[in-house]
Amino acid sequence: SGRVLGQNGEIYIGNDDFIVDNEGNILNENGEVIEKLRLSYIPENADITKVGNNLFSYDGDMTIPEGEKYDIIQGCFEKSNVDANKEITSLMETQRLFEASSAVLKYMDTINGRAASEIIKL
């Protein structure tokens, strides 16, 4: 549903102050645990299904593997897991390959045109 989930479903805090500790526990103003964040893991090359509205579904095991490193820090934004330099380089390489393929097709079209006109002359 595109919401932050806890162990018991969607988390609703309302307007109350809360703290999220480094274990994923959500504590109220009195330090009592209200809920715990549901942490999930999706392998890098997993087969995910687009559901719509920027939501995806994964039917595999989402248990975090032993030794997998993660941090829970309240008030921080998640960094992108995309290496922009690598992706731009890959995009440029793909564009060059596309341009080369396009040039070859254009050349082949020219050759076919010449061959057709030569056959007509015969």
How would you explain this protein's 3D organization?
- The protein is of the alpha+beta class.
- The chain has two domains: 1-79, no CATH class; 80-122.
- 31% of the residues lie in helices and 16% in strands.
- The strands form three sheets. Strands 3-4-5 form a three-stranded antiparallel sheet, with no helix packed on it. A two-stranded antiparallel sheet has the order 1-2. It has a two-stranded antiparallel sheet with strand order 6-7.
- The longest helix is centred in the C-terminal third of the chain and has 38 residues, at 84-121.
- It starts with a strand and ends with a helix.
- The mean pLDDT is 89.
- Residues 74-116 form the Flagellar basal-body/hook protein C-terminal domain.
- InterPro entries: Flg_bb/hook_C_dom.
- This is Flagellar basal-body/hook protein C-terminal domain-containing protein.
- It comes from human gut metagenome.
Spatial extent as radius of gyration:
27 Å
Q: Residue share in helices?
A: 25-40%
* Computed structural class: alpha+beta
Task: Give me the strand/helix succession.
Answer: EEEEEEEH
From the spread of the alpha carbons, the general shape counts as rod-shaped
Strand percent estimate? 15-25%
Could you give the distance between the termini?
70 Å
Please give the largest β-sheet.
Answer: 3 strands, antiparallel
- The residue ranges in which pLDDT falls below 50 over 5 or more consecutive positions are none
Count of helix runs: 1
Strand adjacency order, main sheet: 3-4-5
Per DSSP E runs of 2 or more residues, the count of β-strands stands at 7
Average pLDDT taken over every residue: 89
